[in-house]
Amino acid sequence: MTEPGVNDETPLSISVNLLWCIPGVVGGSEDYMVRQLAGLRTVRDDEITLHCLPDFVEAHPELVGGFTIDEAQVAASSRARRILAEHTWLLRRTRAADLVHHGGGTVPLAGVGRTVVTVHDLQYLTYPEYFSPSRRAYLSTMMPRSVRRADVVAVPTDYVRSTVVNAYGVDPDHVVVVPHGVDLDLRRRAPDGAEMRARYGLGEGPVLVLPAITHPHKGHEFLLEVMARYWPDPDLRLVLIGGRGAAEDDVGAAIERLGLAGRVIRPGRVPDADRDGLVAVADALVFPTQYEGFGAPVIEAMALGTPVIASDQPAVAEVLGDAGLIRPLEPDAWADALDEVLRRRDELVAAGTARVRRFSTTESGRALSAAYDLAVGS
Fold first, then answer.
1. 236: which residues sit within 8 A by CB, 6+ positions away?
2. Residues 138 and 242 in one domain
């Protein structure tokens, strides 16, 4: 169904560059784009082609029926080859497009037609130490050029919008917020709580979940320190779900050093259904991140009826609002957070259920559609 007032004339030819999206590797930006595209398909009837790697098609068959799929036969493991494909193969495939949307934060040096670029965050400027020298050099060269060249820049939050405008001096009117989206039916479809407790050995006590790759900025070690110092309940289980990141070994060492091996469950990456089931059964989702452009686990928790305890990082605080507890990244400030979230659980769940409606996949798709219209009309 087409959104009223959109595309009343000849449909546009829109190309979406997803060559950067390696399933299971790029983190929350993968979910962001997939859910956003699912929402976009409900509000636009244009001819939309996804230019992607074969791995992306295998990981997201739900998108195959709604879009034209154009696979690049490029090894996902080779960043150099993927970048080369953006500058050669993709250029040839998108010459006739009315609009090209680059979802990975950068725009190839050559291209034609109108352009939208999604900038997920500017972490490389805030925490450059978390990036390799080569990656930092690439982003420092390509991102300013990409943002200034694009007709419209899409960002997930007002926080990222302000950092983009301030960092690159671009016209604020051409930097628009396209929020993450989430399926509002997650709670209804999540696996049974008793099943999750049995499958993952959670026992009958309270459960906390941190869903994040073990990157240094995600706060795993901070949370382990808090748990060891202030949350001594022997029946409390902390579930760490997500892939292996640069801090993987440090997290493992902290668990042993703090004597938490029996209280921390580490299943790594789990199926999406199990991720939802674990968050749904949790007493709280904990999110002590140093930096986010959005913080998708926060809206997933709200959709699943689970309270959130999060750091006071600006984007996360913007998204969470009054639907959770916001604490500075100081261990003492988290000391009573678990008791408070258990005491206020019903209130926080109700606030989250109301707030998450503004982050549906349809709302996300509608915001992206508006960004496309702005780019074409600019």
1. 205, 206, 207, 208, 227, 263
2. no
Q: What is the DSSP letter of 61?
A: G
b/e code 68-98 from CB counts within 10 Å (16+ = b): ebbebebebeeeeebbebbeebbbebbeebb
Q: How far is CA 153 from the centre of its chain?
A: 17
Residue 2 lies in a domain: no
- With beta carbons less than 8 A apart as the criterion, state whether 176 and 371 touch: yes
CA distances from 9 to 1, 15, 45, 114, 377 (A): 15, 19, 11, 18, 14
Retrieve residue 139's tokens: 């982003």
Provide the number of structural domains found in the chain: 2
Q: Note the pTM of the prediction, 2 decimals.
A: 0.90
* Main-chain phi, psi angles of 8, to 5 degrees: -75, -15
**Does 66 score more than 90 pLDDT?**
no
Residues 348 and 370 in one domain: no
Q: Are residues 143 and 231 in the same domain?
A: no
Residue 5 in any domain: the answer is: no
Q: How far apart are CA 366 and CA 378, in angstroms?
A: 18
Q: What is the pLDDT of residue 368?
A: 97
For residue 5, give the 3-state DSSP assignment: coil
**20 and 50 fall within a common domain:** yes
Please tell me whether residues 101 and 227 are part of one structural domain: no
Most confident range (mean pLDDT) of 4-18, 74-88, 128-142 is 128-142
Q: Which CATH number goes with the domain that contains 241?
A: 3.40.50.2000
Is residue 30 domain-shared with residue 141, that is, in the same domain? yes
Residue where the block lists tokens 């090209």: 100
Q: 366 and 350: one domain?
A: no
Which domain range does residue 148 map to? 13-181+360-377
**Count of CB atoms within 10 A of residue 23's CB?**
16
Q: Across the chain, what does the average pLDDT equal?
A: 92
Q: How many CB atoms lie within 10 A of CB 373?
A: 18
Q: Are residues 169 and 191 in the same domain?
A: no
Q: Which two tokens stand for residue 191?
A: 């696996």
List helix spans (H) across the chain.
Answer: 28-41, 54-59, 79-87, 89-93, 123-126, 133-149, 158-168, 186-189, 193-200, 220-230, 248-257, 272-281, 296-303, 314-320, 337-343, 345-355, 361-377
